[in-house]
Write a structure and sequence with these properties.
By secondary structure, this protein is of the alpha+beta class. It folds into three domains: 193 residues, no CATH class; 253 residues, Pleckstrin-homology domain (PH domain)/Phosphotyrosine-binding domain (PTB) (PH-domain like); 86 residues, no CATH class. The chain is built from 23 helices and eleven strands. The strands form two sheets. Strands 4, 5, 6, 7, 8, 9, 10 and 11 form an eight-stranded antiparallel β-sheet that branches. The chain has a three-stranded antiparallel β-sheet with strand order 1-2-3. The longest helix has 33 residues. It is elongated and about 110 Å long. The two termini are 60 Å apart.
Length: 690
């Protein structure tokens, strides 16, 4: 498939002027009227001709030559008249973007930002006579489909897995249409983030850390004395700074005039690590929802990192997201046994995703979460059939390689193949080196990473399949979030209403078992005993499933696409916070009583097991022997019948007096059994603090 797409860059010269000088040497690139009529391609619209002309200046080739290369190198299905204009535009755009992103400062170049945006505008109206574009406030804007076809061709701008969510984050306030000012604001913020990350390498900020080969600092927080990060272990807390790399999390507590030696939390190890939200407070009190909890098999107890801020928890949400992304990418690397350039490409994808997340946070003061996250590996873990996305990505990474002469993480040579590690090379162009001594690829074949001209690759196919289900999953998640009610008494009222059918059935059975109506109870008893005797009991569960299936299909037929009937719950009396705390205290007191009762039962059973009360132990042992004999020789249906008859006929007039007496003797026997002794030992606080 890659060979079909030709080698338009194969003949490019080694020395070429910069992108900025190429644009400034001619007329205004946005002015399509400046294009001579003899250089216009008849099949293209005015804006598409403008884009192709500017791409040709970047590639140092005439537009008609670009068109001839497209026709000679692309397969016939890509050159069909119905899609000719759009595919030609994609071919020219991908070729130019592939070259432009090799400039280390392309994000800071306004001409690059303008051209890449105009490529999206032209994609929406590529053919001649098709000039209708989406507009917001009478200005040209870009839609989702154009953004997803052009932006992933530049690895620094977007990743194919999360490009939809990136577009949603950029257009959250513009009705699903991307304005150039928003797009430019995002790229400017992204450029600042990458420059900041580049400065970490030579900064004294992390100079005292001993990073492993191929390990780079991605994010640092807590360097400002007024905004430290607090590490909580038990009831102890230390202020300091937090450093995230592509492999580990480092915490340096504040010392005298400097920072102490860093505590390392290895995110690349296979130690069943869990990262989640956490509440912290003074002396271990759970008061402030502003922390990230880290739990690992290698740690004796969980560690919490608190990110204090006066309003909200944006700072915590950002760190929670990026820590999880590093954790997920390392899990992906271990799962598919990636090494060398494949490992470097996977890490580079995650790092670029974190840079985009930081840019969105800085520019728009938001961190997309859950199904809206713009972090690719975290998103794949949450999307329906996300495992298929990761498998497709792994298959694509297996095809990666770079020109021999490069070197891997461990110094071994890398064989040559046809697909480039575009994210890894982009990160290298920015001055962030993951792989040692990796050289710039020269004289390479045409490659655009995750997008192909007029076609979709296996990774895109897996994404399309996942998107079919993700909207339903997102809607279900939104409905769950919306239906969460506050207050213990309100939640109990909702639960009571939901369980009301089962409670009615239980009340009806209890009424029959009370023998208040001898006729109804006798009829129910005979029917149930006959069913057990005829071995119909084994069909009860299958028939129950069948009944539920028929009931659901009946409701589906009756509903005919109508929304589910709203469950109406009578709201309990309004309570102020003090009253709610009293209700919660009462519920906790009842829960404590139930737990105490359960512990007493377990301790009495322990006493029976170890013969703390020999007479009771003898009785229990004889009863167990009797039950063992019964279970061996009695058929199962008779055993089930006995287990049903004993409780159901307990209130029957013929045996009520006898059953009451037997239950009384059993209670008296149980009360006389002592509980096994328990000794509560306090932990050694001095060892815990150390």
């Amino acid at each position: 498939m890659e060979d079909r797409r030709g080698g338009v860059l194969r003949s490019l010269k080694k020395q070429r002027p910069s992108i900025r000088s190429l644009f400034r040497s001619g007329q205004n690139p946005a002015n399509s009227a400046a294009i001579p009529s003899d250089q216009c391609i008849p099949q293209l619209s005015q804006i598409a001709n403008s884009v192709v002309a500017r791409c040709s200046r970047v590639l140092l080739i005439q537009p008609e030559q670009l068109q001839r290369q497209f026709e000679s190198q692309m397969p016939e299905d890509v050159r069909q008249p119905s899609c000719y204009a759009r595919n030609l535009l994609e071919y020219c755009s991908y070729s130019a973007l592939h070259l432009m992103v090799q400039e280390p400062d392309h994000l800071s170049d306004r001409e690059f930002r303008r051209l890449s945006y105009d490529m999206m505008l032209a994609w929406e109206a590529p053919a001649a006579g098709c000039e209708t574009l989406s507009k917001v406030d009478d200005k040209k804007t870009v839609g989702l489909e154009a953004f997803t076809r052009i932006a992933p061709a530049a690895p620094s701008i977007a990743d194919i897995i999360a490009v939809d969510n990136l577009f949603a984050a950029l257009t959250s306030s513009s009705g699903g249409q991307l304005h150039f000012l928003i797009y430019e604001k995002y790229l400017i913020a992204l450029d600042k983030v990458i420059r900041t990350a580049r400065s970490f390498g030579g900064s004294a900020m992390i100079s005292n850390l001993q990073l492993a080969a191929g390990e780079i600092a991605i994010e640092v927080d807590g360097t400002i004395p007024t905004q430290p990060v607090f590490q909580h272990i038990g009831i102890s807390a230390w202020p300091g700074r937090l450093i995230l790399t592509n492999r580990s999390l480092y915490f340096e507590s504040v010392g005298v005039g400097s920072f102490n030696k860093a505590t390392i939390y290895d995110l690349s190890s296979d130690s069943k690590q869990i990262v989640k939200r956490e509440c912290t407070g003074p002396l271990g009190a759970k008061l402030f929802d502003k922390a990230v909890s880290y739990k690992s098999m290698s740690l004796p107890e969980p560690v919490s990192m608190e990110f204090p801020e006066f309003k909200g928890h944006l700072r915590r949400d950002y760190w929670l997201a990026i820590i999880r992304e590093v954790l997920h990418v390392n899990q992906f690397i271990r799962k598919f046994s990636l090494t060398d350039v494949r490992e470097g490409e996977a890490l580079s994808r995650a790092i670029l995703g974190i840079f985009r997340c930081r840019a969105i946070r800085d520019a728009f003061h938001t961190v997309p979460a859950h199904f809206r996250t713009i972090l690719s590996f975290s998103l794949a873990e949450k999307l329906p059939k996300g495992d298929n996305i990761l498998e497709a990505l792994s298959g694509r990474l297996e095809m990666l390689n770079i020109e021999s002469g490069g070197s891997s993480l461990n110094g071994s040579k890398i064989n040559s193949t046809t697909i480039q590690p575009v994210s890894l090379l982009t990160l290298q162009k920015f001055g962030l080196i993951i792989m040692k001594e990796t050289e710039v690829i020269k004289d390479v074949k045409f490659s655009n990473g995750d997008v192909w001209v007029g076609d979709v690759n296996p990774l895109e196919l897996a994404l399309k399949q996942s998107k079919l289900d993700s909207s339903k999953a997102e809607a279900a998640h939104a409905s769950v979030t919306q239906m969460k009610v506050e207050g213990v008494d309100t939640n109990l009222a909702v639960m009571k209403e939901l369980l009301s059918p089962l409670m009615e059935v239980a009340t009806w059975v209890q009424l029959l078992a009370s023998w208040e109506s001898s006729v109804k109870s006798s009829i129910f008893l005979m029917i149930f005993c006959y069913a057990i005797f005829r071995d119909w009991f084994k069909y009860i569960l299958p028939y129950s499933f069948l009944f539920l299936a028929v009931l659901m299909l009946w409701h589906k037929h009756q509903a005919k696409g109508k929304p589910v009937e709203v469950l109406k719950v009578i709201q309990p009396p309004n309570r102020n916070p003090v009253e709610q705390l009293l209700v919660l205290q009462e519920v906790m007191g009842q829960l404590e009583t139930y737990i105490q009762a359960a512990n007493i039962i377990l301790l009495k059973l322990r006493a029976l097991l170890f013969s703390a009360f020999p007479q009771a132990t003898n009785t229990a042992a004889l009863f167990l022997i009797f039950m063992a004999v019964v279970l061996v020789f009695m058929p199962l249906k008779y055993l089930i019948m006995c287990l049903f008859l004993e409780p159901f006929t307990r209130e029957m007039p013929l045996r009520k007096e006898t059953s009451d007496k037997v239950l009384r003797r059993l209670k008296e026997w149980w009360i006389r059994i002592p509980a096994a002794p328990v000794q509560i030992i306090k932990p050694d606080e001095s060892k815990k603090r150390r």
